């Protein structure tokens, strides 16, 4: 067997061993060996195997694409490095637009034309920040003028800001977007996280025509095959998307430039699952006070020990393993969850109570009771900048008190008591 095959088999064997065994028992009988085992298991080789690439036949650039001015806009280095080589080869004129320095550096190394878009302090709040900060809005408007002067025929976004209608109308022919869900399901900016939280076993990507409606599903050009999401993290899903994105974008480009006749899709309506990080729920109480609560995806970044089951916590740890990070609090100090594993044993201890603990400083390991009588193994660290602690005290409890808006530095992300819970 090839070395890579042995490594893959060994990797999955390690994780299965922990999932099926009793960590509590191992810690009690051989704590040193248990710590060594867990450190080995959570080391840098623990990423999931890459998902299979798109099975769509590779389409080479035709004469229609080769005479086209294409503008590719992305703030994701992973997507840029996957898409740009093939898309650049297919286009007549080609330019990349991004606010991320790594993307700019990659384009420079590649010898590819590049336009820098003003960096935004919070990509999810791009539209709001343009309204709140006149100086930043002025920079953005100047950049829109630069984009117009480049005169693109086609604009393609893939992990970029939500653009206003006037920007979507810059290309002479069409603006396309690659969305990481099966539209009209999971419209919004955190679709990976939303689908993982809801326990979807697979996800799909699609390329659609952009309009003044966010993630408009009325003109979807290309859909990917289902991609595995079971047991995967957001980072895994991003890599899977990067593998199918180049061919999907080329296929969509060919469709719009060759004027292929497309039958409009019938878009389902009703209460469809969404992927908006912030979605306000408002109500007025008996005293006439008006309240506003977030029932969007980002409200789930904080563990609610009274209602999050063991499975809920494990899914959230995978959903928020990039950028946001799941958290709770220990004695008033924020505790960031870096990994979570379900344990087989049951418990009658109250939710949030620490059943066993080990590790020190930035590598703390704790077994914690959940509201459904199960146990989760959390690996994480206290992140408030105070002095590191030793092992957390067995019998003490996690209690989430830090506001989501403070944790994320993102207003209006808090869910109020009594507010609707996402998923």
Automatic annotation (TrEMBL):
UniProt xrefs under SUPFAM superfamilies: FMT C-terminal domain-like (SSF50486), Formyltransferase (SSF53328)
Residues covered by the Formyl transferase N-terminal domain: 137-252
Short name of any one Pfam family annotated for the protein: Formyl_trans_N
Regions crossing the membrane: none
Keyword Signal attached: yes
Protein's UniProt keywords contain Membrane: no
Keywords: Signal
Signal peptide: 1-21
Gene3D superfamilies named among the record's database cross-references: Formyl transferase, C-terminal domain, Formyl transferase, N-terminal domain
Residue intervals of the Formyl transferase C-terminal domain: 302-383
InterPro entries xref list: Formyl_trans_C, Formyl_trans_C_sf, Formyl_transf_N, Formyl_transf_N_sf, Formyl_transferase-like_C_sf
Record-given protein name: Methionyl-tRNA formyltransferase
